[in-house]
Structure to design on (424 residues):
């Protein structure tokens, strides 16, 4: 009896069940799954943005540049020159230059490991004023001038002095044996391409008992030829003469200011071979 | 025979009623589920997008100047991120007193000056805090030259 009742009712009861299941499947596919897909898409977007901003932050922290600011003309208050040196492996987009509180918009790309000299900025400096100059980049970094704030006084721009320091060593026995006197001479030329312009005619340095030092101020940066000679007294078979102990025009004789040294130091340290060879 | 026919009709009516009830309840649940999931998904997406804005917001205090002639401290805020922001500025003096400027909009990729009227003597140090409405902070110390 029970079996026959079940057999009798089951086909009709199934209609509602099937419809209920279909509705549930419909809800699943039209509401729940799209919701999860949308949420998942938002999560993916969040992760993408996290990665992007991490890369942006890394790029910002890895960005490195040096800014050198110097007067275009030491005597002229009209303009200054800004040199930007990109010292990192990424291009740097310069967007602003600051001269105190004045903003100069820029749109300059500096390629990796290269330099850019920005167009001269007209500042019309006033006597007694400081000019704090820096450059901003698109990544949010700001680079201040390595030369510090520029100061303009009644004599013009105040900048570092250029010069060559020659250090003469103290007297040693072998020098006495070679009849070196205490008289040294320094001659300096400015090298301009293939030309050499005499800056200091032979200038005498008298060595004291200990080492001597002489500072020879210069007018401008550039490459110099420095010739240092010593007077050798007459001795058996050798007449008195000037003996050259330094004559160089390589990178050691370059004043590359502002992005380098403003001073050339010439330490006359004679090599050991000098001790033996004849003057 | 007659009894059987009536019984069959009743079953059909019952089935129809049951189906109608199932359809009605099903459609109601379907509609409710769709609304609920839409609202949940929208809220979730909005929350995520808001969180993204919080994360990608980037700004910095680019320059600070004190103009003694105008007795005003100028704080330049650079928004180098990709979303606009609204910031509050808080300047703390050495004696602990504070001055603030609220609700300055800083558009993306722009630098904005926030002036604060105050009298400072040379050598005075101030702490400057810029707080965005999204909860990010930037600090800088400034000594009046």
């Amino acid at each position: 009896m029970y079996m026959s009742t079940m057999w009798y009712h089951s086909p009709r009861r199934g209609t509602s069940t099937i419809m209920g299941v279909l509705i549930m499947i419909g809800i699943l596919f039209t509401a729940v799954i799209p919701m999860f897909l949308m949420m998942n898409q938002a999560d993916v977007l969040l992760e993408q943005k996290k990665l992007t901003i991490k890369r942006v932050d890394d790029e910002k922290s890895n960005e490195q540049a040096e800014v050198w600011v110097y007067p275009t003309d030491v005597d002229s208050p009209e303009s200054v020159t800004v040199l930007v040196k990109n010292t990192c492996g990424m291009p740097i987009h310069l967007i602003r230059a600051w001269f105190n509180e004045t903003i100069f918009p820029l749109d300059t790309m500096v390629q990796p490991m290269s330099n850019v000299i920005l167009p001269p900025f007209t500042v019309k400096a006033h006597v007694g004023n400081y000019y704090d100059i820096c450059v901003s980049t698109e990544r949010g970094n700001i680079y201040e001038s390595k030369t510090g704030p520029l100061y303009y006084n009644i004599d013009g721009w105040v900048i570092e002095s250029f010069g060559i320091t020659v250090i003469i060593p103290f007297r040693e026995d072998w020098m006495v044996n070679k009849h070196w006197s205490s008289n040294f001479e320094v001659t300096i030329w400015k090298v301009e391409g293939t030309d050499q312009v005499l800056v200091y005619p032979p200038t005498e340095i008298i060595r004291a008992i200990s080492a001597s030092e002489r500072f020879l101020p210069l007018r401008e940066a550039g490459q110099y030829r420095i010739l240092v000679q010593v007077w050798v007294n007459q001795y058996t078979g050798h007449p008195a003469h000037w003996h050259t102990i330094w004559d160089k025009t390589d990178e050691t004789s370059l004043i590359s200011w502002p992005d380098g040294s403003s001073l050339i130091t010439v330490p006359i340290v004679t090599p050991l071979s000098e001790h033996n060879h004849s003057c | 025979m007659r009894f059987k026919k009536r019984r069959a009709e009743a079953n059909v009516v019952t089935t129809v009623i049951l189906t109608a009830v199932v359809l009605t309840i099903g459609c109601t649940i379907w509609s409710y589920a769709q609304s609920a999931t839409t609202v949940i998904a929208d809220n979730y997406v909005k929350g995520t997008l808001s969180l993204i804005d919080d994360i990608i917001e980037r700004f910095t205090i680019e320059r600070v100047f004190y103009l003694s002639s105008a007795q005003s401290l100028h704080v330049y805020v650079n928004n180098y991120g990709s979303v606009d922001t609204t910031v509050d500025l808080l300047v703390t003096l050495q004696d602990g007193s504070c001055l603030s400027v609220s609700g300055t909009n800083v558009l993306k990729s722009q630098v904005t000056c926030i002036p604060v009227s105050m009298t400072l003597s040379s050598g005075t140090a101030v702490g400057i805090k810029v707080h965005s409405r999204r909860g990010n902070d930037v600090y800088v110390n400034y000594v009046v030259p």
Summary: Chain A touches chain B at residues 12, 15-16, 19-20, 23-24, 26-27, 30-32, 34-35, 38-39, 42-43, 45-46, 49-50, 52-53, 56, 96, 98, 100-101, 103, 134, 136, 138-140, 142 (CB under 8 Å). Residues 161 and 189 of chain A are 18 Å apart (CA to CA).
